[in-house]
Structures are given as structure tokens and as C-alpha cells.
């Protein structure tokens, strides 16, 4: 026991240097990305998975740009590539038939927004408004030699291919290896960071919570939306406080310090939710007993009444299935093997991977994917015309609502640097932050989300 306490103390002490968010990012995939360019880890000998028929599409009227994934990244690129180079014949392939955004979904739980806010956006309208084709299908294979991408509805020939499938969960990294527990966790205590049906389940949990312990975990690594688990903890706590429930939110954080906007979240925890939020740093999950409703960390075990278990993340498994994964020396999160400035697969200027499957140490956020999408659209337009383009950094502008009654938010706005000598992204640059919660920030948060929807779905 003494040994355990000492070790925990040591971990906390030794990690204070890592506490600042830029440092967290700079020590993640950034450092790994500094390694020399290596060829994509193609699944040697893996057969090309295909339906062996072509998808019914009008004849291409220009270079065909196929985009896999209609999330923040894919939707932005589809619209802006067409704007940047109208000759592109753009086809967006998305496996969902209905859109609902991940970003801003935490706001639904305490009733700040309704479901329509997240979901009243149509893939069909987006395609119509920006003159591209939307196909409701799932990408299942890729043959780079013949420039053919396969979907469950048929194959498509491409001149340029963008793959933007987002993320998958990695339960093994939180010590959950057996498939029964993985499935039970995914279905009963979902992380709420990928799929809209997870949001519906968490919404139901929050609305039905009658008291007791609600556990929210925060994984290590460059997980999707750094502030979102802390934001969610605040918003669930605000419901507990508002409804005068005898309950608390226990935040089990794998990190030694809150990974972003730490002063703003600490202030909310201490000033708004004393006795309601319990934050445990350096508490990485090492296993979960679903039947006993118990989360194990290296040092302690925690019983819960309800929970949202956010495991580690990795690039969507599609990236691995297509053989596009970076070697472990470049990404320890199974992300894509791309040029960190121009997004093309190493050794193939016809295939690009964007959004949260990228290996760069950018905050995996909607604003990052959207601003990056504007830039990638220009890269594609330039490459289609045989031109060069200068790298520009994405922008991470990220709001977090820390109170629902009234709606008060904090925010950070940052760019990133590039070190040509190391060919590496160097972390936060030109950062502005407002850790003082306010209703004005809360109102701007909602406007920001509307702006993002407009940018992806309107003409
Ligand atoms: C709870 C939560 C809160 C968040 N809060 C914020 C916030 O406040 N601010 C912010 O900026 N960001 C926030 N984010 C993060 C933001 O939503 C993501 O970082 C961003 O959407 C990533 O964009 P993407 O296009 O890479 O991935 P996604 O938006 O996940 O899109 C990937 C798309 O690819 C599709 N797809 C996957 N595989 C296939 C396949 N084989 N074939 C066809 N289609 C496929 C998926 O269906 C999906 O539509 C939040 C996320 C969550 C979950």
C-alpha cells in the first residue's frame, strides 16, 4: 500500500511539467511525428475487398474526388474543394443516413439545446447546395494501384481520394480485453464520443439519474475533444445541483492535470460544484467490472450507479483495414501514415487522410477538422492543377459550457507551429484563452456551433 501511495505521489509530482495543454500535445504524436518518413503499412497480401461491381454514378465531368466520411472534415472538404476547383467531380460517401453532430452534444444533456440543434442538418441538402453527390454507403476496401475505392453499394474510381472516418475506441488500453466486457461497456456505459446513439443513451442516463455516483472517465493520449469530458462532468453536476439530487460526478482522469483550460475547469469544480464533482488525477482506468458496476484504477476501485466510460481512442479501424496505418514510431494511437503538412499518404499523392484519423498532435476537435478542411480543399485544388501550396495551420477554437443554469462558458483559441528542421508540428502557437466563465461566452458558443453547421451544410 505504501508503495502504491508513493508511486501515485511520484506520478503526480513528476507530471506537473506535462500539465500545460501545449506540453501534453507536444509530447504526444508530435514527438513521434518527428520521425523520418516511412512507407504506409499496407496489409501485405490482403485481398482487395470489393463488391465487384461499379456504383451507379453519373459519368465524371472532371477529376473525380471521392471523400469517405461525412463528418466535420469530409463535409467541409466536399464543399470547399468544389469551390476551390469547380472542375472537381465530388462524391461524398457516408455510412450514416442521418447526420447528428458530436460537437455540442454535451449541451443536450442538461437541456441547453434540443436534439434538432444537433441533427436538423441534411446530407442531401449539403450536397445539393454545394453541387456534389452524396452516397449513403460504407467504404469497405481500397485498391490504390487501380485507384478504386470499394463501398458496400459498389466500387468507385477516383483521381483523388480523401478518407475522413473519424475515430474508434481502444478498450484494450484501459485494460478491457475480453470481447464480452467490451460489448457490455459499449452498450451500457458508452463513452459518447463517436456515435449519436451513444448521445441518446447518455441523455437518457442524465435525465433519469436519481442520485448516487456518476463516473466520467478521461483517457490518456490525444483523445477526441480534450475539454469535452470535463465539460460533461460540469453539465451533469449542474443538473444534480439544479434538481437538488444527492449525487456526485466522480471524474477519473488518466492525466495528471486537466488537459486544457485547466484554470477555468478548476474554478468551476471548486466554486460551482464543491461536493458534487470529485476530480481524481492520475487515475487511469485499468479495468471495469460491469456486473459489479466498479471501475478499477491502478490505486483504487470506484463503485458507481451510472457512468460514461470514455476509453482511449485511435484512428477509425477503417484506416487499419485499408492498410494506411503509420508505424508505431510515428503514432502510438494507430493513426494514418500521412505527410504532416499536405495530408497525402506517404508515397501516394492521390490518397489523403484528414480529420481525427490524422497523426498530428492537433486537438481532435470540430473547429480543427473544419479549418483543416478549408486548407486541404486548397491542397487538392492545387495538386489537381499541378501547383504548389504553402502549409497553413488549422485553428482550434473550442468553447466549453461549465454551467447550464445559467449558460456560462470558457474558451481557448489556438494555432500550431511547424518546425522544418524536424519536420514536426510543435504544439500550440498564438494561443488566446478565456478561463473566466460568462454568459456572453455561453451565447457565443451556440453561435459558433451554428456557424459550423452553416459552413458545412449551406451554399
Ligand atoms: C461529446 C463531444 C463533444 C465535442 N465537443 C466539441 C466542441 O465543443 N468543439 C469542437 O470543436 N469539437 C468538439 N467535438 C469534437 C468533434 O466533434 C470532432 O473532433 C470532429 O467532428 C471530427 O471530425 P471528423 O470528420 O474527423 O470525424 P467525424 O465527425 O466523426 O466524422 C467521421 C464520419 O465518417 C463516417 N464513416 C466512418 N467510417 C466510414 C466508412 N467506412 N464509410 C463511410 N463513412 C464512414 C462516420 O459515419 C462519420 O460521419 C466533440 C465531440 C464529442 C463526441
UniProtKB/TrEMBL annotation:
Limits of the Sulfide dehydrogenase [flavocytochrome c] flavoprotein chain central domain: 210-305
Residue stretches making up the Flavocytochrome c sulphide dehydrogenase flavin-binding domain: 396-457
Give the record's keywords alphabetically.
Signal
One GO molecular-function entry:
flavin adenine dinucleotide binding
Residues of the FAD/NAD(P)-binding domain: 64-167
What is the residue range of the signal peptide feature?
1-33
Q: Which Pfam families match?
A: FCSD-flav_bind, FCSD_central, Pyr_redox_2
Query: Could you tell me which PANTHER family the record lists for this protein?
Result: FAD-DEPENDENT PYRIDINE NUCLEOTIDE-DISULPHIDE OXIDOREDUCTASE, PTHR43755
Q: What is this protein called?
A: Sulfur oxidation protein, flavocytochrome C
Q: What is the lineage of its organism?
A: Bacteria, Pseudomonadati, Pseudomonadota, Gammaproteobacteria, Lysobacterales
Amino acid at each position: 500500500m505504501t508503495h502504491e501511495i508513493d508511486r501515485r505521489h511520484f506520478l503526480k509530482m513528476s507530471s506537473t511539467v506535462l500539465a500545460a495543454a501545449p506540453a501534453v500535445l507536444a509530447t504526444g504524436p508530435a514527438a513521434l511525428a518527428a520521425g523520418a518518413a516511412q512507407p504506409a503499412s499496407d496489409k501485405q497480401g490482403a485481398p482487395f475487398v470489393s463488391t465487384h461491381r461499379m456504383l451507379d454514378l453519373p459519368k465524371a465531368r472532371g477529376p473525380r474526388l471521392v471523400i469517405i466520411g461525412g463528418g466535420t472534415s469530409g463535409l467541409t472538404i466536399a464543399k470547399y474543394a468544389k469551390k476551390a476547383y469547380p472542375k472537381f467531380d465530388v462524391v461524398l460517401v457516408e455510412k450514416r443516413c442521418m447526420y447528428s453532430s458530436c460537437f455540442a452534444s454535451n449541451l443536450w444533456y442538461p437541456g441547453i439545446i434540443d436534439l434538432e440543434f444537433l441533427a436538423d442538418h441534411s446530407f442531401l441538402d449539403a450536397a445539393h447546395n454545394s453541387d456534389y453527390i452524396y452516397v449513403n454507403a460504407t467504404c469497405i476496401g481500397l485498391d490504390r494501384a487501380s485507384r478504386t475505392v470499394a463501398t458496400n453499394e459498389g466500387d468507385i474510381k477516383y483521381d483523388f481520394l480523401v478518407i475522413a472516418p473519424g475515430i474508434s475506441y481502444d478498450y484494450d488500453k484501459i485494460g478491457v480485453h475480453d470481447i464480452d466486457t467490451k460489448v457490455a461497456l459499449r452498450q451500457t456505459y458508452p463513452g459518447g464520443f463517436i456515435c449519436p446513439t451513444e448521445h441518446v443513451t447518455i441523455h437518457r442516463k442524465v435525465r433519469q439519474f436519481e442520485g448516487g455516483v456518476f463516473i466520467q472517465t478521461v483517457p490518456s493520449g490525444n483523445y477526441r475533444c480534450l475539454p469535452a469530458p470535463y465539460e460533461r462532468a460540469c453539465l451533469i453536476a449542474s443538473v444534480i445541483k439544479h434538481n437538488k439530487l444527492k449525487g456526485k460526478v466522480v471524474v477519473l482522469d488518466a492525466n495528471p492535470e486537466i488537459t486544457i483550460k485547466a484554470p477555468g475547469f478548476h474554478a468551476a469544480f471548486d466554486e460551482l460544484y464543491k461536493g458534487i464533482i470529485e476530480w481524481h488525477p492520475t487515475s487511469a482506468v485499468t479495468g471495469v467490472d460491469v456486473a459489479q458496476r466498479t471501475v478499477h484504477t491502478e490505486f483504487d476501485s470506484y463503485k458507481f450507479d451510472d457512468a460514461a466510460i470514455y476509453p482511449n481512442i485511435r484512428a477509425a479501424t477503417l484506416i487499419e483495414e485499408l492498410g494506411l496505418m503509420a508505424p508505431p514510431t510515428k503514432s502510438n494511437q494507430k493513426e494514418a501514415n500521412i505527410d504532416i503538412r499536405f495530408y497525402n499518404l506517404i508515397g501516394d499523392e492521390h490518397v489523403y487522410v484528414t480529420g481525427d484519423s490524422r497523426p498530428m498532435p492537433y486537438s481532435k476537435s470540430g473547429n480543427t477538422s473544419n479549418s483543416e478542411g478549408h486548407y486541404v480543399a486548397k491542397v487538392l485544388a492545387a495538386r489537381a492543377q499541378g501547383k504548389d501550396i504553402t502549409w497553413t495551420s488549422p485553428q482550434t477554437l473550442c468553447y466549453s459550457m461549465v454551467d447550464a443554469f445559467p449558460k456560462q462558458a470558457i474558451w481557448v483559441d489556438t494555432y500550431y507551429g511547424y518546425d522544418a528542421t524536424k519536420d514536426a508540428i510543435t504544439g500550440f502557437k498564438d494561443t488566446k484563452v478565456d478561463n473566466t466563465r460568462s454568459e456572453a461566452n455561453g451565447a457565443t458558443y451556440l453561435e459558433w456551433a451554428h456557424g459550423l453547421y452553416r459552413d458545412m451544410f449551406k451554399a
